[in-house]
Amino acid sequence: MATKRRGAAAPAAAKRGRREARAELCPALGDAALRERAGAAWARGERLRHDAVVLEPAPFRHGVIPGFLAGSAFAEALRDELLRLDFRGRRNDLLSLRQSEELGASPEPHVAALRHALCEEFQVWLSAVTQIELEPTIDISCAKYEYTDVLLCHDDELEGRRIAFILYLVPPWEKSDGGTLDLYSTDEHFQPQQITKSLVPSWNTLVFFEVSPVSFHQVSEVLSQKCRLSVSGWFHGPSVARPARHIEAPLARSPHIPYDHEILYEWINQVYLDLDSQAQIQEEFEERSEILLKDFLKKEKYQLLCEALENKEIQWSSRGPANKRLYEAAEEDSLPDTLKKFLQLLRSEALFLLLSNFTGLKLHFLAPSDEDEDAGEGQAADTSGHSSPKPEQEEAEQPANGNSHQPHQPESSLEAQDSETQSSSGSPVCAGELRRWTHGHYTLVHDSQATEFALDLLFFCGCEGKWLRERCQTLLLQGLHKGIISDLSSLLKQPNFPCFFLHRRCLCRLCPIPHLGTNPLSVVLMQRLGLWPWNHLWPFPLAPGGGAWAEGKAEPPRPFPAQQRLWARWRDRRPQRPGAFHPFAHQNYHYTSNAQSPAFSNVTLGIPGHFGLIAS
């Protein structure tokens, strides 16, 4: 019995200990005169400088309160208590950090005391200063940012959020440690432009800002081994109206250029020009909706491309906005002749036809459609099994299917297309750009990202096989597409480039390029002076009746006789050379028959419309 009584006394003591924890805020927050000055400055959008409170109107209204908790003992005990919590890793295209569960009902004494102080005393002070009627409850959690962790550009917008706050409990911190709270200016369309202010975390300092259509901010990458510990959350209140979503100008698209098969023989490894190889590639693509084509270009052409990319006269411009993407794209007019000729290959009629053979998609007027196949079956039924073949020329001149489905928008334009394009007949077009990736670049999946269907073609120059393998492993660990990524083992055995990657894009297969940080993978990348991925996109019309194949409900069309015969004529003019390798028999090409998606697109293709997107 005595043992039981002693055991019961321990929880009681613990409860008394919890009741003893009390959070006292900075005494200056109780100064009525200072509160009035702060409220007037906030309302007029003016700066306020005070030892206890700093208010700034730009780039959006925010405040800084150093020494937020009175005395250091409570803050230190709170830090120790928070570090004992269970943290779960959160990794996706937008962020990388470790976060606690919601602390709204946490029983820990110092956490509960902080929560009470925020909901009572500080909530009253905030309402008086901002003139916002705040609710008495808050969202609150704890986050740990460690080496290479980051939270990319977003605006915190969510129904009812009015004031965001962050309380820093960090060791001595310098700007060189990273982890700064970066604030963005915005343009006339309420889109983030550039970082105009960076707040360095400081012990026992609280930062707050009004959540609005222009409150874009980020936590920059942590560059040291220090732990950036913070308590953050939101005060809620009446929702505010938001402006209409801005529609970005579409990236220019173009139909194919009338180059014949000669351009393919000039650039492409001959094994891929063989019909048997194309049939096998199409079979793999139909099963997986993606495929990696090793040594697609001739080695001498690939070497010329790599050399041309080092040309100092190429003009690179940054692509944004930061809440969707950040990378550099080349101005096409500044490209040397070798790169311009490669662009001509990507836009050539011959490549459109080749891609149709690889994928079964209608990317060329000779490619079949479901209507063509249905008409053929109906004609066969009418003739009771007797058919009279059409002349080859007549078959080759069949008009393209008049499907009026809007083509897929590339990522940089994704949000819209003008009405003239929307009413187009669905004739195959393409769009693309040359991108350079270095430290800090990324793309994000965002709410306005287009969901149409398209074929993405990605081709990388200037990155080594080691970088690709390590990057894929990192993305797998991050669980970018948890439950979709299956087995990377075959892909990770790929030793080198040049490889072409084909990927059928749809809503469930959007693959952003995660932030390129300072980890060893990015060090390799930086040593290469940048990574140049060519990305081209071919929107394709959906099948009649809602696009059954695009939804995975039916088989895609296969090349029909006229298409095969045209390709055969091109092939016969250039007999195969002895010793040409087969893409599925090469000793370094490991392609499994696993029905699961092979994940290369899932981990590498990160920008719809040419390379990626993100959502805040």
Structure description:
The protein has 2 domains: 14-236, q2cbj1_9rhob like domain (Jelly Rolls), CATH 2.60.120; 275-371 and 406-415 and 427-543, Jelly Rolls, CATH 2.60.120. The chain is built from 19 helices and 21 strands. It has helices at 2-20, 32-44, 72-83, 109-130, 262-267, 275-288, 299-309, 337-346, 349-359, 370-382, 392-396, 419-422, 465-478, 489-492, 520-527, 544-547, 561-572, 600-604, 608-611, and strands at 48-49, 54-56, 62-65, 88-91, 95-99, 138-145, 150-154, 161-168, 181-186, 192-199, 205-210, 217-219, 228-236, 290-294, 316-319, 325-330, 431-436, 442-443, 454-461, 499-505, 532-539. The radius of gyration is 29 Å and the shape is elongated. The two termini are 58 Å apart. Belongs to the TPA1 family. InterPro entries: Oxoglu/Fe-dep_dioxygenase_dom, Oxoglutarate/Fe-dep_Oase_C, Pro_4_hyd_alph, TPA1/OFD1_N, uS12_prolyl_hydroxylase. Prolyl 3-hydroxylase that catalyzes 3-hydroxylation of 'Pro-62' of small ribosomal subunit uS12 (RPS23), thereby regulating protein translation termination efficiency. Involved in stress granule formation.
